[in-house]
Each structure stands twice: as structure tokens, then as C-alpha cells.
Amino acid sequence: VKHLTSKASSILWVTAGGILTGKKPEYAMTNGLARSVTSEQASLALTTLDFDLETTSVSQLASIVAKTAKRQTKKNDIHETEYVVSNGLVYVSRLVANRGASITTVKSTPVPTPFTEGQYLVAAAQQGKITWTADKREHEPLSAGEVEVKLSYAGLNKEDTVVINGNDYPTTFSHEISGTITKVGSGVTDLKVGDVVVGFAFDKFATFQRTSADLVQKVEKDEDVTKLASVPWSFAQAIYGLETLARVESGETVLILSNTGAVGAAALKVAQALSAKPFIVADSEADASALVS
Predict the structure, then answer these.
(1) What is the DSSP letter of 56?
(2) C-alpha span between 217 and 249 (Å, rounded)
């Protein structure tokens, strides 16, 4: 096959698969091979012609092959490259709009619906927009060790904005949450309904988030929950990097590079808490002052 396709200028490939009715679907591989070859060798005139021998007579077969070959020799004519013959009729592949299917499947114009306080809603990001729909999990029981949190505030980082703008594939975003516990699953003993918490939720963005009780921390009355909402993500990275990975000890030096944003600021606080000696690389005095403050 390789020799033929590389030496010939025109090929008519005849098969007897009856692929129009799916009698021998393996013969359809011929079309796939032909498409691949012609995509690499644009000068090759390669045409496939498949017959259903049970419904096509010998005389019809000979006539159609002769006409197709003659048509193929006329280089200036626009001709098809894939033919299928069944019941003596010649078919060519076409993509035709199915208007009936479009009518039955097309989505109607959405009508904005006002939402009320305390409604269970779940969000989805699509092409820079966030759409809200009813959360069907409202009446589903919590898993053991889980809590349900009515969201008051949510933190958005750079990765979240990438998802919302449609530049990344995940459907979940905004993993930093703060709010009030509304339900408690079995096995949870240190938290109760009504507690204000802050933490993580690796769930879809929703007005009521479900998360493990181990991933939230109770907020004391004298703490500002609005400021704490954006703390978990950056501090979790700083703690993991300095304590778990680097195993920083008292008196050791920690270098914090420029352009590290909130994580850099968190790393400064964590290093100080570990009694380490943090050094900050800043592009300007203003950046250095912002980090220190």
C-alpha cells in the first residue's frame, strides 16, 4: 500500500463491504486510511468505492466502476472522493442539518429568576459568567464527618478567576469559605449548628457548602470573619512549604522572593511564628513596606 500511494498519481480503491447498511463495518477502515493518506499527499487522487454485492448486479458494478474511473481522470473537475453503492444507487457522504432535532433539543431563552435569602443554589462558570441553579443536594443527608456551611464570604484567587473566565477546565472554584454551620454530620463533636467557621471546601461554588469538619476552624467572637475568608489558601501553602517540606527550625534563614503575593506575605508570618529569620526580596520600597505591614 505504501508503495502504491507513493508512486501512483491516481487510485480508485474498490471494496465490497456494504458499509451503507453496516454489513461489514471493518471495510470502513479503507475510508479512514484514504483520508489519512490524502491529508499527507495532497497531490494523490485517491477515491474509494464500496459496493453491496447482495443488492448490486455485476453489470451495474462494472458500469459504476467505469464511470467513476473516467470521472477521476478529469483533473479539472470537482468530484467526490468517497462513494457507496447499494441497491444500484450511488451515495456520497454529506452533513445535512437536522432541523427537527434542533427544534427538539435547542435550549429556550433563559428567564432570570429572583432568588430569596437562604435558598440552596449552586454556581457554574461558563465563558466569563457565573450562572446559578437550584442545588438538588438540599435534602440529601451529610456524610459522616461532614458539616454544611451557609456561606457568608468566599475567597477568590488567581486560579479561580482563570476558571471563571473559561481559560481552564475545572468546574469547581473558590475553595476558601467562611460562614455559619447549618448541619452537622455524624461523628462531628467539636462543632455545632450556629458556629461561625472559616476554612476549605473542595466543592462546587454554592450558597451552602459541604465539607469535612477537619477542614474548617471555628471563629472566635473577637475575630473578623471578613478578613479571615481569604486567609486559608495562602497560609496553607506557606505552612505546608515551610513546616512540612522545608522543616524550618528556630534561627534558620528563610528567603521570600518577590512577586509571591499573598503566599509571600503568609510565608513571612509563618517564618516569624517559627522563630526563623525571614529575608524579603522586593522590587521597590513600597512592595517591601506592603509585605512587612
Answers:
(1) S
(2) 25
What does the block give as the cell for 273?
511564628
Range of the domain at 62: 2-92
Which residue, among 142, 140, 232, 138, has the nearest Cα to 188 in the 3D structure?
142
Query: What element of type H or E holds 110?
Result: none
Degrees, nearest 5: CA angle 14-18-24: 100
Same structural domain, 126 and 217: yes
Please say if the pLDDT value at position 22 is more than 70.
Answer: yes
Q: For residues 119 and 183, what is the distance between their CA atoms, to the nearest angstrom? A: 15
Residue 112 within any structural domain of the chain? no
Residue 293: pLDDT band with limits 50, 70, 90: low
pLDDT (average), residues 271-276: 93
Do 246 and 214 lie in one domain? The reply is: no
C-alpha cell at 210: 459541604
- Domain of residue 285, CATH code: 3.40.50.720
| The overall pTM is greater than 0.70 | no
Predicted pLDDT at 156:
74
Give the total residue count for the chain.
Answer: 293
